[in-house]
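Team,

Forwarding the record for the chain on the shared tracking sheet. I've put the sequence and predicted structure together so nobody has to dig through attachments.
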Amino acid sequence: MAEGQPESGADKRKAIIIVILVLFIGICIYTYARYGFTGFKDFISRILTWMIVLAIFGGIIYLVFKIMQRPKVDLVATTMQDIIDAGMFSKPPMLKDIYFTGDKEHGEFKVGKIIGYCQIQSYKDLNKIAGLTPEQIVKLQKEAALKGEEWDPSLVLIPEDCFVWKKMMWPFSLFEQPKVLRVLDDEHSQLVGDVKIYAVSMIKKFGYYWPNRAYLDIARIDHAIIKEAWRGHIHEFLKDEVAIARRAVGMDAQHQKALEERKLLKIPSPMGETESRGG
Protein backbone atom coordinates (compact mmCIF):
# COMPACT_ATOMS: atom_id res chain seq x y z
CA MET A 1 0.00 0.00 0.00
CA ALA A 2 1.37 3.41 -0.95
CA GLU A 3 2.49 5.77 1.81
CA GLY A 4 -0.27 8.11 2.92
CA GLN A 5 -3.01 6.03 1.27
CA PRO A 6 -5.93 5.36 3.67
CA GLU A 7 -6.53 1.78 4.69
CA SER A 8 -9.70 0.30 3.24
CA GLY A 9 -12.41 -1.46 5.23
CA ALA A 10 -11.48 -4.79 3.64
CA ASP A 11 -7.85 -4.40 4.72
CA LYS A 12 -8.93 -3.64 8.28
CA ARG A 13 -11.18 -6.71 8.38
CA LYS A 14 -8.37 -8.90 7.07
CA ALA A 15 -5.99 -7.52 9.71
CA ILE A 16 -8.51 -8.16 12.50
CA ILE A 17 -9.13 -11.73 11.30
CA ILE A 18 -5.39 -12.42 11.14
CA VAL A 19 -4.84 -11.05 14.66
CA ILE A 20 -7.71 -13.18 16.04
CA LEU A 21 -6.36 -16.31 14.34
CA VAL A 22 -2.84 -15.69 15.64
CA LEU A 23 -4.14 -15.18 19.20
CA PHE A 24 -6.31 -18.29 19.01
CA ILE A 25 -3.44 -20.44 17.72
CA GLY A 26 -1.17 -19.00 20.42
CA ILE A 27 -3.67 -19.81 23.17
CA CYS A 28 -4.11 -23.36 21.81
CA ILE A 29 -0.36 -23.94 21.80
CA TYR A 30 -0.02 -22.55 25.33
CA THR A 31 -2.92 -24.68 26.63
CA TYR A 32 -1.52 -27.85 25.10
CA ALA A 33 1.99 -27.17 26.40
CA ARG A 34 0.81 -26.40 29.96
CA TYR A 35 -2.12 -28.76 30.53
CA GLY A 36 -1.50 -31.50 28.00
CA PHE A 37 -3.99 -33.16 25.68
CA THR A 38 -6.75 -33.41 28.30
CA GLY A 39 -6.64 -29.69 29.05
CA PHE A 40 -6.46 -28.85 25.37
CA LYS A 41 -9.51 -31.04 24.65
CA ASP A 42 -11.46 -29.39 27.46
CA PHE A 43 -10.49 -25.94 26.16
CA ILE A 44 -11.67 -26.75 22.61
CA SER A 45 -14.92 -28.21 23.99
CA ARG A 46 -15.65 -25.01 25.90
CA ILE A 47 -14.85 -22.87 22.86
CA LEU A 48 -17.25 -24.88 20.69
CA THR A 49 -19.98 -24.69 23.34
CA TRP A 50 -19.66 -20.92 23.61
CA MET A 51 -19.62 -20.57 19.81
CA ILE A 52 -22.85 -22.55 19.51
CA VAL A 53 -24.52 -20.52 22.30
CA LEU A 54 -23.40 -17.22 20.76
CA ALA A 55 -24.54 -18.35 17.29
CA ILE A 56 -28.02 -19.24 18.58
CA PHE A 57 -28.25 -16.02 20.60
CA GLY A 58 -27.05 -13.93 17.65
CA GLY A 59 -29.46 -15.67 15.30
CA ILE A 60 -32.40 -14.91 17.59
CA ILE A 61 -31.38 -11.24 17.87
CA TYR A 62 -30.93 -10.98 14.09
CA LEU A 63 -34.32 -12.58 13.45
CA VAL A 64 -36.09 -10.28 15.92
CA PHE A 65 -34.33 -7.25 14.42
CA LYS A 66 -35.39 -8.24 10.90
CA ILE A 67 -38.99 -8.77 11.97
CA MET A 68 -39.22 -5.42 13.76
CA GLN A 69 -37.32 -3.46 11.11
CA ARG A 70 -39.49 -1.73 8.53
CA PRO A 71 -38.28 -2.45 5.00
CA LYS A 72 -36.90 0.49 3.06
CA VAL A 73 -38.01 1.13 -0.50
CA ASP A 74 -34.76 1.02 -2.49
CA LEU A 75 -35.80 0.83 -6.12
CA VAL A 76 -32.28 0.17 -7.43
CA ALA A 77 -31.72 -2.64 -4.92
CA THR A 78 -35.14 -4.11 -5.74
CA THR A 79 -34.32 -4.23 -9.45
CA MET A 80 -30.94 -5.79 -8.69
CA GLN A 81 -32.55 -8.46 -6.53
CA ASP A 82 -34.96 -9.26 -9.38
CA ILE A 83 -31.98 -9.76 -11.70
CA ILE A 84 -30.23 -11.95 -9.10
CA ASP A 85 -33.32 -14.13 -8.66
CA ALA A 86 -33.85 -14.48 -12.40
CA GLY A 87 -30.16 -15.21 -13.00
CA MET A 88 -29.97 -17.94 -10.35
CA PHE A 89 -33.06 -19.64 -11.77
CA SER A 90 -31.91 -19.47 -15.42
CA LYS A 91 -28.14 -20.11 -15.09
CA PRO A 92 -26.80 -22.51 -17.77
CA PRO A 93 -25.06 -25.48 -16.10
CA MET A 94 -21.84 -25.10 -18.15
CA LEU A 95 -20.91 -21.66 -16.77
CA LYS A 96 -18.11 -21.75 -14.19
CA ASP A 97 -15.94 -18.75 -13.29
CA ILE A 98 -15.43 -15.13 -14.41
CA TYR A 99 -12.01 -13.92 -15.55
CA PHE A 100 -10.80 -10.51 -16.69
CA THR A 101 -8.34 -10.67 -19.58
CA GLY A 102 -6.48 -7.44 -18.75
CA ASP A 103 -4.16 -6.06 -21.43
CA LYS A 104 -0.50 -6.11 -22.41
CA GLU A 105 0.53 -4.68 -19.03
CA HIS A 106 -2.16 -6.26 -16.83
CA GLY A 107 -2.40 -10.03 -16.60
CA GLU A 108 -5.50 -12.16 -16.55
CA PHE A 109 -7.12 -12.68 -13.15
CA LYS A 110 -10.10 -14.50 -11.66
CA VAL A 111 -12.98 -12.47 -10.25
CA GLY A 112 -15.31 -15.09 -8.83
CA LYS A 113 -17.65 -18.00 -9.40
CA ILE A 114 -20.73 -17.60 -11.60
CA ILE A 115 -23.90 -18.58 -9.73
CA GLY A 116 -26.43 -17.03 -12.11
CA TYR A 117 -26.88 -15.61 -15.58
CA CYS A 118 -29.66 -13.81 -17.41
CA GLN A 119 -30.01 -11.47 -20.37
CA ILE A 120 -31.98 -8.24 -20.19
CA GLN A 121 -32.93 -5.47 -22.60
CA SER A 122 -31.63 -2.39 -20.89
CA TYR A 123 -32.72 1.22 -21.33
CA LYS A 124 -30.07 2.93 -23.42
CA ASP A 125 -29.60 5.88 -25.73
CA LEU A 126 -30.08 4.42 -29.23
CA ASN A 127 -27.82 6.92 -30.94
CA LYS A 128 -24.89 6.39 -28.58
CA ILE A 129 -25.05 2.83 -27.34
CA ALA A 130 -26.14 1.18 -30.60
CA GLY A 131 -23.80 3.31 -32.71
CA LEU A 132 -26.59 4.53 -34.96
CA THR A 133 -26.91 7.98 -36.43
CA PRO A 134 -30.31 9.69 -36.72
CA GLU A 135 -30.20 9.02 -40.47
CA GLN A 136 -29.74 5.30 -39.89
CA ILE A 137 -32.67 5.20 -37.48
CA VAL A 138 -34.89 7.00 -39.99
CA LYS A 139 -33.77 4.53 -42.67
CA LEU A 140 -34.76 1.58 -40.48
CA GLN A 141 -38.15 3.18 -39.84
CA LYS A 142 -38.75 3.65 -43.58
CA GLU A 143 -37.72 0.08 -44.39
CA ALA A 144 -40.16 -1.23 -41.81
CA ALA A 145 -42.93 1.00 -43.19
CA LEU A 146 -42.33 -0.30 -46.76
CA LYS A 147 -42.73 -3.85 -45.49
CA GLY A 148 -45.96 -2.91 -43.74
CA GLU A 149 -44.39 -3.55 -40.37
CA GLU A 150 -44.32 -1.38 -37.27
CA TRP A 151 -40.77 -0.33 -36.44
CA ASP A 152 -39.73 -1.59 -33.04
CA PRO A 153 -36.93 0.39 -31.33
CA SER A 154 -35.94 -2.73 -29.39
CA LEU A 155 -34.60 -4.22 -32.64
CA VAL A 156 -31.61 -1.89 -32.48
CA LEU A 157 -30.99 -2.23 -28.75
CA ILE A 158 -27.99 -4.33 -27.79
CA PRO A 159 -28.88 -6.99 -25.20
CA GLU A 160 -27.06 -6.82 -21.89
CA ASP A 161 -25.72 -9.93 -20.15
CA CYS A 162 -25.92 -10.07 -16.36
CA PHE A 163 -23.57 -12.41 -14.52
CA VAL A 164 -24.42 -13.12 -10.88
CA TRP A 165 -21.25 -14.09 -9.02
CA LYS A 166 -19.59 -14.53 -5.65
CA LYS A 167 -15.98 -14.00 -4.64
CA MET A 168 -15.64 -16.34 -1.66
CA MET A 169 -15.43 -20.11 -1.79
CA TRP A 170 -17.94 -22.49 -0.22
CA PRO A 171 -18.96 -22.57 2.66
CA PHE A 172 -18.00 -18.92 3.21
CA SER A 173 -19.97 -17.94 0.10
CA LEU A 174 -23.17 -18.84 1.96
CA PHE A 175 -22.81 -15.60 3.92
CA GLU A 176 -21.80 -13.45 0.92
CA GLN A 177 -24.25 -11.20 -0.89
CA PRO A 178 -24.48 -12.07 -4.63
CA LYS A 179 -23.07 -9.45 -6.99
CA VAL A 180 -24.14 -8.52 -10.53
CA LEU A 181 -21.76 -7.79 -13.41
CA ARG A 182 -23.46 -6.18 -16.42
CA VAL A 183 -21.66 -6.42 -19.78
CA LEU A 184 -22.52 -6.18 -23.47
CA ASP A 185 -22.42 -9.18 -25.78
CA ASP A 186 -19.12 -8.17 -27.41
CA GLU A 187 -17.41 -7.63 -24.05
CA HIS A 188 -17.14 -11.29 -23.06
CA SER A 189 -16.22 -14.67 -24.49
CA GLN A 190 -18.56 -17.55 -25.29
CA LEU A 191 -20.90 -18.73 -22.57
CA VAL A 192 -19.12 -22.05 -22.07
CA GLY A 193 -16.96 -22.94 -19.09
CA ASP A 194 -14.96 -19.98 -17.79
CA VAL A 195 -16.23 -16.65 -19.15
CA LYS A 196 -13.58 -14.03 -19.93
CA ILE A 197 -14.42 -10.33 -19.78
CA TYR A 198 -12.44 -8.20 -22.21
CA ALA A 199 -11.45 -5.49 -19.75
CA VAL A 200 -8.60 -4.47 -17.47
CA SER A 201 -10.76 -4.29 -14.36
CA MET A 202 -14.30 -3.58 -13.22
CA ILE A 203 -15.94 -0.64 -11.52
CA LYS A 204 -18.92 -0.36 -9.20
CA LYS A 205 -21.74 2.10 -9.81
CA PHE A 206 -25.16 2.12 -8.14
CA GLY A 207 -24.53 -1.33 -6.63
CA TYR A 208 -23.78 -3.01 -9.99
CA TYR A 209 -20.40 -3.95 -11.47
CA TRP A 210 -19.39 -2.87 -14.98
CA PRO A 211 -16.27 -3.14 -17.18
CA ASN A 212 -13.82 -0.32 -16.50
CA ARG A 213 -14.31 1.38 -19.87
CA ALA A 214 -18.01 1.96 -19.07
CA TYR A 215 -17.29 4.18 -16.05
CA LEU A 216 -18.10 7.51 -17.74
CA ASP A 217 -20.63 6.10 -20.22
CA ILE A 218 -23.72 8.01 -19.08
CA ALA A 219 -25.91 6.55 -21.81
CA ARG A 220 -25.04 3.07 -20.64
CA ILE A 221 -25.04 3.34 -16.82
CA ASP A 222 -26.81 6.48 -15.59
CA HIS A 223 -29.55 6.40 -18.22
CA ALA A 224 -30.24 2.71 -17.54
CA ILE A 225 -30.36 3.08 -13.74
CA ILE A 226 -32.59 6.16 -13.88
CA LYS A 227 -35.05 4.48 -16.22
CA GLU A 228 -35.12 1.29 -14.15
CA ALA A 229 -35.74 3.29 -10.96
CA TRP A 230 -38.48 5.27 -12.71
CA ARG A 231 -40.13 2.04 -13.79
CA GLY A 232 -39.92 0.70 -10.23
CA HIS A 233 -41.41 3.95 -8.91
CA ILE A 234 -44.40 3.56 -11.25
CA HIS A 235 -44.86 0.00 -10.00
CA GLU A 236 -44.84 1.13 -6.35
CA PHE A 237 -47.26 3.95 -7.18
CA LEU A 238 -49.69 1.52 -8.84
CA LYS A 239 -49.59 -0.78 -5.79
CA ASP A 240 -50.43 2.18 -3.55
CA GLU A 241 -53.25 3.18 -5.90
CA VAL A 242 -54.74 -0.31 -5.64
CA ALA A 243 -54.70 -0.13 -1.83
CA ILE A 244 -56.31 3.33 -1.86
CA ALA A 245 -59.01 2.20 -4.30
CA ARG A 246 -59.82 -0.86 -2.20
CA ARG A 247 -60.20 1.23 0.91
CA ALA A 248 -62.44 3.64 -0.96
CA VAL A 249 -64.88 0.87 -1.97
CA GLY A 250 -64.54 -1.08 1.29
CA MET A 251 -62.68 -4.06 -0.21
CA ASP A 252 -59.56 -3.76 1.94
CA ALA A 253 -59.75 -6.43 4.67
CA GLN A 254 -57.94 -4.49 7.39
CA HIS A 255 -59.83 -1.29 6.68
CA GLN A 256 -63.12 -3.20 6.66
CA LYS A 257 -62.23 -4.78 10.01
CA ALA A 258 -61.44 -1.35 11.47
CA LEU A 259 -64.82 -0.04 10.31
CA GLU A 260 -66.61 -3.00 11.90
CA GLU A 261 -64.81 -2.40 15.19
CA ARG A 262 -65.86 1.25 15.14
CA LYS A 263 -69.50 0.21 14.65
CA LEU A 264 -69.29 -2.21 17.57
CA LEU A 265 -67.97 0.55 19.85
CA LYS A 266 -71.07 2.69 19.27
CA ILE A 267 -74.63 2.02 20.52
CA PRO A 268 -77.79 3.90 19.56
CA SER A 269 -79.25 6.24 22.17
CA PRO A 270 -82.99 6.75 22.85
CA MET A 271 -82.76 10.19 21.23
CA GLY A 272 -81.65 8.66 17.93
CA GLU A 273 -77.99 9.61 18.35
CA THR A 274 -75.05 7.30 18.76
CA GLU A 275 -72.96 7.33 21.87
CA SER A 276 -69.70 5.58 22.72
CA ARG A 277 -69.67 2.55 25.03
CA GLY A 278 -66.65 3.94 26.77
CA GLY A 279 -68.47 6.95 28.11
